[in-house]
């Protein structure tokens, strides 16, 4: 219970903090308006103003984002100091009014205990509504009163966990627990695997880690961006509000299907086909498909050039093919080598006819005797080759033998004729790949398209060299700009609170500014990365990582050569047919055993009653599944029922009424989706359901990573039997609720 005087004291400090926020906002707004008003001047001045305007707009957006719940905690320290903890850091001249939750000074808020208090005597959780303090919860970190409490800020935590769901994930910045904090603040280098059961906060932790890394290593990470991979578009929408609410924008949220720019890949396909496409052997299959497109004529090709018939045989072309293959693995880049070899052969045939010297071996001949049978010299031969190279018939022959291919063309060819992989895939697997051209791409195609792009290669060397030269020019220009602005603290504006608003030189390094100048639309790294297939990220976070195939891992590792990665998942929840047995199996090809494991052990989502039911229900199907320890109980046991479709409809209607402002999900076996969509038309559904609707109908695959106040699972035995990984699927379904679970078995007469 918060005393009135404490509430009033906190309120008065909070008002000071909000007052300062308002001032900062007004300053940023004024500076933005000023920079936008001055449009004249040199090109350099314009660029500089654009950069400044971008910086002020970004700052303004951050101030707006933190309005709600700006300050949520206080630490009283042994030396009498007090620190208020909040979403961003705010200073008043040189005195901190609010410490950013990610700053080292804020860490005790999440990890201090009575046993290890980090000089903290009291930890206070401050609950606010708009700009008003409504509740305070104090924890005295005193050994005598410590008890065996393992939770940090228990009251605030339980209030957050009990709150109704909204269809959008919320940030947990006010109640991060110690084991989660350790993951969030772990060093960014190397691969960190975060394993934990359902509801242990893996996704929440992954998102807060992104925010922490961007804050702590801003210089390294802003330029390259952070990539977060999620399982599907619905999940990405579900988590999309968390980072903006933490005032972070430099993150690209994407599914695997988004990672080949220009080729959207959202076509559904069978799990069996996806599994074959995800196998590591597909690297060899693709290499084979490429080799298959490097041909020599099965029958001699005849090409008529200027009345002369030239012939290309397999023996003529084989040396060219071997030279081109030896030159390197990239098919398109090797085409000029093949082309030169074939043109040499053809030019030789033309030369034999038009340049033959009838007297070359005439002992009485003049001074050309015994030197060469042909009067054409190297320059003539080069002309001949150039003429042949532009001849459409010759080009057509070259294109048939060694075509320049796009990744999509290579894959389309492979799917139309998968026999090319007969040494590597059995007949049933090859049939799973077979497909008519033009039906669109699936997520499992993306790693294959990416692999194909690597095998084929774009000849972008000239473009890269030009980009390098341009970067050097921009860098030196940007450094000049920073030198000038650092020298003159006032940037085109009069301001009496100069110290409060950073100068560009304070907030940007030359390379960042150079990047901004290069990109006149001022897109963030994340936005630019989304359009660039081989963009290399500063850090990659993979959520639901247990679902990724070996081919998907290859793609992600290419996007992160530094291997600065956070891999988040739960092997026991994997529904993919090719799921790995352990993280070592996944990571060994890339980092051997140089990866770290962190485990999350407490389930925040699912109450004890549902966890107990889940453990018992799955004990027979898969004893290896051990649900995590729940943090709370609701006193409401799950219900089970069997009945007709009408009875199911009635049960769902009852649960929908009961859930009130919360959210309800009905999770069904994939093969019943059509029937139940028709029977429950009031539920939102479809391939990408709107989770903000009060009630939704989902398959297990769609429900992965999500949560709802109430869940009704339909036909659990059918889910169990529906796939070799049925126990894992049922585990996912049963652990989605935060409050109530119902399990309904349909009478299938
Ligand atoms: N420290 C915390 N404070 C408040 N809420 C928390 C905390 N940790 C986790 N939660 C909440 O618990 C729920 C489950 O978290 P999350 O979805 O991140 O778990 P998960 O491990 O990714 O689950 P799954 O494996 O099922 O995808 C979310 O509502 C999240 O906000």
TrEMBL record:
Pfam families from the UniProt entry: UvrD_C_2
Q: Which residues bind ATP?
A: 196-203
Against InterPro entries, the record matches this protein to:
DNA_helicase_UvrD/REP, P-loop_NTPase, UvrD-like_ATP-bd, UvrD-like_helicase_C
Q: Domain of life, per the record?
A: Bacteria
Signal peptide span? none
Regions that span the bilayer: none
Q: Where is the UvrD-like helicase ATP-binding domain?
A: 175-607
- Keyword vocabulary terms for this entry: ATP-binding, Helicase, Hydrolase, Nucleotide-binding
- Protein name from the UniProt record: AAA family ATPase
Organism field: Actinoplanes oblitus
């Amino acid at each position: 219970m918060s005393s009135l005087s404490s509430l009033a004291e906190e309120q008065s400090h909070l008002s000071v903090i909000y007052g300062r926020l308002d001032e900062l906002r007004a300053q940023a707004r004024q500076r933005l308006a000023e920079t936008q008003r001055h449009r004249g001047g040199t090109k350099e001045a314009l660029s500089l103003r654009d950069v400044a305007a971008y910086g002020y707009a970004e700052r303004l957006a951050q101030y707006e984002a933190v309005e709600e719940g700006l300050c949520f905690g206080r630490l009283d320290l042994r030396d009498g100091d007090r620190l208020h903890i909040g979403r961003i850091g705010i200073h008043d001249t040189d005195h901190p009014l609010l410490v950013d939750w990610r700053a080292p000074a804020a860490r005790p808020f999440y990890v201090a205990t009575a046993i290890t208090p980090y000089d903290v005597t009291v930890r206070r959780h401050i609950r606010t509504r708009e700009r008003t303090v409504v509740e305070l919860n104090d924890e005295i970190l005193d050994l005598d009163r410590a008890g065996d409490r393992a939770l940090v800020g228990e009251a605030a935590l339980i209030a957050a966990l009990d709150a109704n769901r909204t269809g959008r994930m919320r940030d947990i910045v006010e109640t991060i627990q110690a084991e989660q904090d350790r993951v969030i603040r772990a060093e960014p280098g190397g691969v960190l695997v975060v394993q934990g059961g359902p509801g242990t906060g893996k996704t929440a932790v992954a998102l807060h880690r992104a925010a922490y890394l961007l804050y702590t290593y801003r210089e390294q990470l802003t330029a390259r961006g952070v990539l977060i991979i999620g399982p599907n578009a619905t999940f990405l929408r579900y988590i999309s509000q968390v980072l903006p609410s933490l005032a972070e924008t430099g993150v690209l949220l994407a599914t695997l299907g988004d990672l080949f720019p220009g080729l959207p890949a959202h076509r559904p396909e069978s799990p069996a086909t996806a599994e074959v496409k995800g196998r590591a052997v597909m690297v060899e299959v693709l290499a084979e498909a490429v080799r298959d497109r490097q041909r020599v004529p099965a029958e001699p090709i005849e090409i008529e050039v200027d009345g002369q018939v030239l012939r290309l045989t397999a023996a003529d072309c084989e040396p060219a093919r071997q030279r081109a293959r030896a030159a390197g693995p990239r098919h398109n880049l090797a085409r000029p080598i093949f082309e030169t070899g074939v043109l040499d052969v053809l030019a030789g045939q033309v030369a034999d006819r038009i340049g033959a010297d009838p007297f070359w071996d005439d002992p009485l001949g003049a001074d050309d005797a015994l030197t060469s049978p042909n009067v054409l010299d190297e320059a003539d031969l080069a002309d001949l080759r150039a003429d042949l190279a532009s001849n459409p018939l010759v080009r057509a022959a070259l294109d048939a033998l060694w075509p320049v291919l796009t990744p999509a063309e290579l894959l389309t060819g492979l799917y139309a004729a998968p026999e090319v992989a007969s040494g590597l895939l059995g007949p049933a697997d090859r049939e799973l790949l077979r497909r008519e051209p033009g039906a669109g791409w699936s997520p499992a195609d993306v790693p294959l398209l990416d692999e194909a792009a690597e095998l084929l290669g774009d000849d972008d060397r000239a473009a890269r060299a030009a980009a390098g030269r341009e970067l050097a020019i921009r860098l030196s220009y940007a450094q000049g700009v920073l030198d000038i602005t650092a020298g003159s603290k006032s940037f085109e504006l009069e301001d009496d609170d100069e110290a409060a608003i950073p100068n560009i030189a304070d907030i940007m390094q030359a390379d960042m500014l150079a990047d901004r100048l290069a990109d006149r639309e001022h897109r963030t790294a994340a936005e630019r990365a989304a359009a660039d297939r081989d963009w290399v990220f500063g850090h990659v976070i993979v959520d639901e990582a247990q679902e990724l195939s070996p081919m998907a891992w290859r793609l992600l590792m290419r996007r992160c050569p530094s291997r600065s990665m956070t891999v988040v998942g739960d092997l026991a929840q994997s529904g993919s047919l090719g799921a790995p047995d352990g993280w070592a199996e996944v990571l060994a090809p890339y980092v051997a055993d140089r990866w770290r494991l962190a485990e999350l052990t407490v389930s925040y989502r699912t109450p004890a009653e549902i966890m107990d039911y889940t453990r018992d229900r799955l004990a027979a199907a898969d004893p290896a599944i051990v649900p995590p320890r729940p943090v709370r109980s609701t006193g409401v046991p799950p219900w089970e029922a069997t009945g007709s479709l009408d009875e199911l409809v009635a049960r769902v209607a009852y649960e929908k009424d009961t859930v009130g402002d919360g959210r309800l999900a009905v999770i069904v076996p994939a093969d019943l989706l059509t029937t139940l969509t028709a029977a429950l038309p009031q539920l939102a559904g479809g391939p990408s359901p709107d989770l903000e609707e009060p009630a939704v109908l989902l398959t297990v695959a769609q429900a992965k990573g999500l949560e709802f106040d109430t869940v009704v699972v339909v036909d659990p035995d059918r889910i169990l039997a529906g796939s070799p990984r049925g126990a894992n699927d049922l585990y996912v379904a049963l652990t989605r609720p935060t409050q109530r679970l119902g399990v309904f078995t349909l009478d299938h007469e």
